[in-house]
């Protein structure tokens, strides 16, 4: 997708007056935060599991080459094939080539953020292949022709009413002329329509939550079971995954799974956890004839050994955005690219460039709640700060902002100047604001006073009063 | 009685400039707890505006000044979780490439505390001078809460204030949208967030809002006043110290 991250402020403005969006965001905020809390409280060893999960990923990242090679040889042994892809373009081409070989007209897709990252759908369409999203949320936004707004709930920004309208509009061609509203009925209708697509598809594409080095298996978790149908029914199964999804063993997967769903939706486990190992064997009743893993790097190996390495622990659970006050206010589309919220603010500058994504790490209050809930204990604010430093150093931040900061710093470094300047300024402001106790507007403070008053200072500074009283100043 | 604790008060720039009463309230509380309070006159700001804007060179200069100014005290106390958090958590990090300074910063971090948690956790304070007739609610400012684990301490002390009724704020741990320079750089988003906070504050039914950080207080008071609310907004230290002569934050002289 074409990023609109540079337009964060305009995007935010629009989002904040979008009533259905705001309604959805409120639901998300209350629902997800309470559910995660209950799940965390319900498991005494939850904090220890987080440490363990972090340890597993840290270990993998130290030996990434080794585990990736082991994974590849296991996949090959089992009759599958791994395609190493450095760039999104490589990944798209690898997928197209597989599709072309079997003359695919339709592919079904399970939910995959990496597929979004490489902008797979528009590419397949351009090449005459119809991608059909089978995850309900993905299906909804595909109908709406929108990007996902959340990494685990791509359509969380949509209200039930909007979904009714979309189905009503797009399902006419299947003879569904009645506008339905009941959630169960909506799901049933989507199911019915998708059912035929599963059978029509030549290729099924899924993402992966984990790649297991020990067994060469790939793992997806879903709540709808659509992933199973996507990968079992077509002749070809393509898994598209980024390389940091690797973990050493099945045991490790089960450890991380225990924190994944709890952090994401507050469930103990997702409804379906599906392991795929190679193509169908002679004794199997079903399964694909071919099994491909398209392994995407896209800048990830460059992150190793840098401040960004810790981001590679991310398991895409979405907890950071579920708990982010900025995300709650503006929603996922405002971030303007595939990964929204705190993880996006930390990761997107690397993937789409700091110039484009400059606002993302800046548009955070540094409240720290994302780090508090991140199951993998990724220091998201610290990484956002790293980007702010980069932006400041390379003059990507706007000059008026730089000027104001450097001016304040110059004063803060000189106590004499600070005392003199602030005494005068506070005396003036204090006198002006004394009667009302606040300002409704003030020159140069428009940002503050647009939506709130500025409380007036008392008039004298504490340090001046303290000195006048003869308090100890350590001189 | 044992030797008094020698405390250097890091008053913070926002208290210094906007609300000296909080500084005096802090002094009263510290003295009541048996501390000898000094306010080094070479102090200015902890450097957060520069730090959070990515200007780490200037931040380091400012931090060096703070380290120097507060060398000679048993403890350094700030009436702010965010500025204390800056010193405790971020100063050592800032100097990770300068071992000598890093050691000094670590040492300073080890004796720096947020005011209310210092009173309870270090001084063992269990009663305070304040009296208050009314219902208050309390917002947990993010840095104090998450960097310094300030949560129960203010509640414990507020519970000892005569006449005070504490009602928990729904979403007390949700950010108020201040975020330092964020509140002007992304003013629209900041206002949206504080608007939600003010709705929660009103819903609490309290007649006063307390918190431990001036930045958040200015933000929340500014929003409540813009909405025409007569909820009083004060720093928690003012109530604990019983220093309520100043009009509340954002209120005029009546
Ligand atoms: S950064 Fe942490 S909280 Fe956010 S999606 Fe990744 S693992 Fe989940």
Give a description of the structure.
The complex is a heterodimer of chains A (475) and B (254). By secondary structure, chain A is α/β, with parallel strands linked by helices. Chain A has 3 domains: 128 residues, no CATH class; 208 residues, NagB/RpiA/CoA transferase-like (Rossmann fold); 55 residues, no CATH class. Helix content of chain A is 52%, strand content 11%. Chain A contains 24 helices and 12 strands. Chain A has a 6-stranded parallel beta sheet with strand order 1-10-7-4-2-3, with helices on both faces. Chain A starts with 7 loop residues before the first helix and ends in a 7-residue tail after the last helix. Chain B has 254 residues and is an alpha/beta fold. Chain B has 2 domains: 116 residues, no CATH class; 115 residues, Rossmann fold (3-Layer(aba) Sandwich). Helices cover 50% and strands 15% of the residues of chain B. Chain B has 13 helices and 8 strands. Chain B has a 4-stranded parallel beta sheet with strand order 2-1-3-4, sandwiched between helices. In chain B, β7, α12 and β8 form a beta-alpha-beta unit. Chains A and B meet through α1, α15, α19, α20 and α21 of A and α1, α2, β2, α3 and α4 of B. The complex binds iron/sulfur cluster. Iron/sulfur cluster (SF4) binds next to α14 of chain A.
Order of helices and strands of chain B: EHHEHHEHHEHEHHEHHEHEH
Shape of chain A: elongated
Oligomeric state as shown:
heterodimer
- Small molecules held by this entry: iron/sulfur cluster
What gross morphology of chain B would you assign?
Answer: globular
> What would you say the CATH architecture of the largest domain in chain A is?
3-Layer(aba) Sandwich
Trace the largest sheet of chain A across and list its strands: 1-10-7-4-2-3
